[in-house]
């Protein structure tokens, strides 16, 4: 009505408000048009600037929104609503200095409001000015009229938050006195006792425990860490007998921390094997004892323990013998099948592991934990479809398990899918999952916005501070690291070998497959394409149904439509134009938050190596060198870096000078050949280090192929890390060209590894060998799952 009047058709604030209304209706472009028009007509209106900031905030452009709010405050410096909105954005962006200033203005304008005091105190707390934060909190507490004997939840939270600030300020004595003074007014009595216990420990105030706990395990378990020899045997004997008789499945987990001590391992093994022999003979722990006989279940738990014991020691044949004996006596116990699957996983036969885990799941289909474990094992064996079907038993009906798990932010499943797709060479699908995980972390970060107001109002201050600190390091989480690392590895591979429309066909032809195998592979591809088409049609139908049936608010509908437009397409993701730029997007959070992990800097080096950024390459290797100077991957990077520097004679003088000075410190004035020889000499018993040194020997001098292969394939008694993980890395290196063409040497090595690890599917002869060649090319350097990727090599 106002704008229809010619006199007010160009009224700035009215145009801005119309734009705000249009934005709420989902008409974003029109909204921006009207708000900008209103701002042009009345640039000195705080309303126009405020509305423009609201639009920017709705689009997650927080920096731009802050600028708009500041412009609005220049025109109306005491506007409460603008100050509140500005403070929310400042804490969201962690502009703590600005947040403190804004909160001070709000306190001056509204000194009677609780949120004004609490927000100002939190600003000082986050800035680690604990004295000022405590003064503000105490001043505010004194204004609260709460009777001493009355329990008020919000007042209780204030007391506990005040105490938390004291503890963070290292005021332990004051904190103890404070919590004891207000103990009766605190609702969370358990937390009070925990705080007092922690403080008393810090202050070295110990009290004797007056009441005994005869049924507790810890008082009997903890001395086992301390006592040696005969005393250990005596205590361990009593401890084991009680738990075997009672039937305690997690007994081995309780004792696993003792397995660093060879003497204690030997004593445990002797005791338990003697139990097993005696129980079989006379149903007693010792044939020299008399008394009440043990029930049959005691022998079962002894055999279960021995299976775990020998699995831990890497004696898999014995472990399988004991677990099979236990299953033969009690074929209905889930734990036994679970353990058998675990043994096969450690052996390196993931297909068999998934089979036995599926057997365990079939014994109790309502057990979500075993269901999840079974799905995880299937994914480790690259059985993605079967894993999705397994998860569908616990997901929402009417939608695919994959979609529902993404909605629920089930990131353990998604990270395992990433690794499975990556191993299978389905890089587009893997990248889709990587971006889905990244979106989850973005959403978690964005979701904190609503709590900036809510927590101050509800006085949940301790939880609020914990939330802010968690959000600051959110992308340090293992799920993000795994997804980011896989994404970087894939983008590096796509940069080295970019996919084209014909590349998949070319890859097939390059595999040296027989006609039958090639036909089978092409048939599988056609089925996959057909399945993808059907899946796309199903998604489209589901989308149509959602748009018709859902009755939600307009802003939610707009958000949903926006998400659909940004749908991730595997084909587009794996044919990205600038893979290195995409890799850097995943790398930046790792450099900021996971700088203590050497893989972060080595991944950074691999990116900058391909971009030719020598100073950034130097920065990466120096940071990695500071963490672990003897890391085998770092050694490879150093050799490649040195060789690349020597091959580029056209670098600027200042850059060459810096590189020369810094590399001399790392190489200790040695040439690369001598540096590599010293590395091999100093790590003569580590297969991982020998492999890296041998690869670099061949990299530096192709004529030394035979010697390099001989070093990498050593399997004598002096090698200490002859396990599935390291052996498969050597096998993969023999196949991927790291040592040139060495088919005959690979076959000799496979036979030797098969003799060493006869159950490992990667080294099985005949049929498994053929498929092993192709699958080995899909191995990655992902340390979390590398030891479990062997199952891919035996796929048929």
Automatic annotation (TrEMBL):
Q: Name one Pfam family in it.
A: NatA_aux_su
InterPro entries, alphabetized: NatA_aux_su, TPR-like_helical_dom_sf, TPR_2, TPR_rpt
List residue spans for each TPR repeat.
Answer: 46-79
Instruction: Reply yes or no: does the keyword Transcription apply.
Output: no
Record carries keyword Cell cycle: no
Biased-composition ranges, Basic and acidic residues, are: 532-547
Q: Where is this region: Disordered?
A: 528-570
Any one cellular component term from GO for this entry?
A: cytoplasm
- What keywords tag this UniProt record? Repeat, TPR repeat
The protein, known as: N-alpha-acetyltransferase 16, NatA auxiliary subunit
- The record lists the organism as Sus scrofa (Pig)
Species classification: Eukaryota, Metazoa, Chordata, Craniata, Vertebrata
């Amino acid at each position: 009505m106002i704008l229809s009047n010619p006199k007010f058709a160009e009224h700035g604030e009215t145009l801005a408000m119309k734009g705000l209304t249009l934005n709420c209706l989902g008409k974003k472009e029109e909204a921006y048009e009207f708000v900008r028009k209103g701002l042009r007509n009345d640039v000195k209106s705080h309303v126009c600037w405020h509305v423009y900031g609201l639009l920017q905030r709705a689009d997650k452009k927080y920096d731009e929104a802050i600028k708009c709010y500041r412009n609005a405050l220049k025109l109306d410096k005491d506007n409460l609503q603008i100050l509140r909105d500005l403070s929310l954005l400042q804490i969201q962006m962690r502009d703590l200095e600005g947040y403190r200033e804004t909160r001070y203005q709000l306190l001056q304008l509204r000194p009677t409001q609780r949120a004004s005091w609490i927000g100002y105190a939190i600003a000082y707390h986050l800035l680690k000015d604990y004295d000022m934060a405590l003064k503000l909190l105490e001043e505010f507490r004194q204004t609260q009229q709460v009777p001493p004997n009355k329990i008020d939840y919000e007042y209780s939270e204030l007391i506990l938050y005040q105490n938390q600030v004291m503890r963070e300020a290292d005021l332990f004595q004051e904190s103890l006195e404070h919590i004891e003074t207000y103990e009766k007014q605190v609702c969370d009595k358990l937390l009070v006792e925990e705080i007092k216990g922690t403080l008393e420990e810090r202050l070295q105030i110990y009290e004797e425990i007056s009441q005994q706990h005869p049924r507790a395990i810890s008082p009997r378990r903890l001395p086992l860490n301390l006592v040696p020899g005969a005393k250990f045997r005596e205590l361990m004997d009593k401890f084991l007998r009680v738990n075997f008789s009672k039937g305690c499945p997690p007994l081995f987990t309780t004792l696993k921390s003792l397995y660093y001590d060879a003497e204690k391992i030997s004593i445990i093994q002797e005791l338990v094997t003697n139990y097993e022999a005696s129980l079989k003979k006379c149903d007693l722990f010792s044939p020299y004892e008399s008394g009440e006989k043990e029930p049959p279940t005691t022998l079962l738990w002894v055999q279960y323990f021995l299976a775990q014991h020998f699995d831990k020691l890497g004696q898999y044949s014995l472990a399988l013998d004991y677990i099979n004996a236990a299953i033969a006596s009690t074929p209905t116990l889930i734990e036994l099948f679970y353990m058998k699957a675990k043994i096969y996983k450690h052996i390196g036969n993931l297909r068999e592991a998934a089979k036995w885990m599926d057997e365990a799941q079939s014994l109790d289909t309502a057990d979500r934990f075993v269901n999840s474990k079974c799905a995880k094992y299937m994914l480790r064996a690259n059985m993605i479809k079967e894993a999705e079907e397994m998860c569908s038993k616990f997901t929402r009906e009417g939608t695919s398990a994959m979609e529902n798990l993404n909605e629920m932010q089930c990131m353990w499943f998604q990270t395992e899918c990433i690794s499975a797709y990556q191993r299978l060479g389905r890089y587009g699908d893997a990248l889709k999952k990587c971006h889905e995980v990244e979106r989850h972390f973005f959403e978690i970060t964005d979701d904190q916005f609503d709590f900036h107001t809510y927590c101050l109002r509800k006085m949940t201050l301790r939880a609020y501070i914990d939330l802010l600190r968690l959000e600051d390091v959110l992308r340090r989480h293992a799920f993000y690291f795994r997804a980011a690392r896989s994404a970087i590895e894939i983008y590096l591979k796509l940069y080295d070998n970019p996919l084209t429309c014909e590349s998949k066909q070319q890859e097939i032809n390059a595999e040296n497959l027989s006609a039958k195998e090639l036909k089978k592979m092409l048939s599988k591809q056609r089925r996959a394409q057909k399945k993808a088409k059907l899946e796309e049609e199903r998604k489209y139908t589901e989308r149509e149904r959602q748009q018709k049936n859902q009755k939600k608010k307009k802003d939610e509908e707009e958000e949903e439509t926006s998400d659909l437009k940004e749908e991730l397409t595997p084909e587009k993701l794996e044919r990205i134009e600038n893979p290195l730029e995409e890799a850097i997007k995943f790398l930046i959070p790792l450099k900021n938050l996971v700088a203590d992990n050497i893989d972060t800097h080595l991944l950074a080096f691999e990116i900058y190596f391909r971009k030719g950024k020598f100073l950034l390459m130097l920065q990466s290797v120096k940071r990695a060198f500071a963490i672990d100077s003897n890391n085998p991957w770092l050694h490879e990077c150093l050799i490649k870096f040195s060789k690349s520097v020597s091959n580029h004679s056209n670098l600027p003088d200042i850059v060459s000078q810096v590189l020369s000075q810094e590399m001399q410190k790392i190489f200790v004035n040695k040439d690369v050949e001598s540096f590599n020889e010293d590395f091999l000499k100093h790590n003569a018993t580590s297969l991982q280090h020998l492999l890296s040194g041998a690869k670099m020997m061949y990299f530096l001098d192709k004529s030394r192929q035979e010697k390099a292969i001989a070093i990498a394939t050593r399997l004598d008694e002096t090698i200490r890390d002859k396990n599935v993980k390291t052996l498969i890395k050597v096998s993969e290196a023999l196949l991927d060209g790291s040592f040139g063409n060495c088919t005959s040497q690979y076959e000799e090595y496979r036979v030797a590894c098969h003799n060493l690890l006869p159950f490992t599917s990667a080294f099985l002869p005949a049929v498994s060998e053929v498929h092993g060649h192709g699958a080995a090319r899909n191995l990655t350097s992902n340390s979390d799952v590398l030891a479990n990727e062997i199952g891919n090599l035996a796929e048929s």
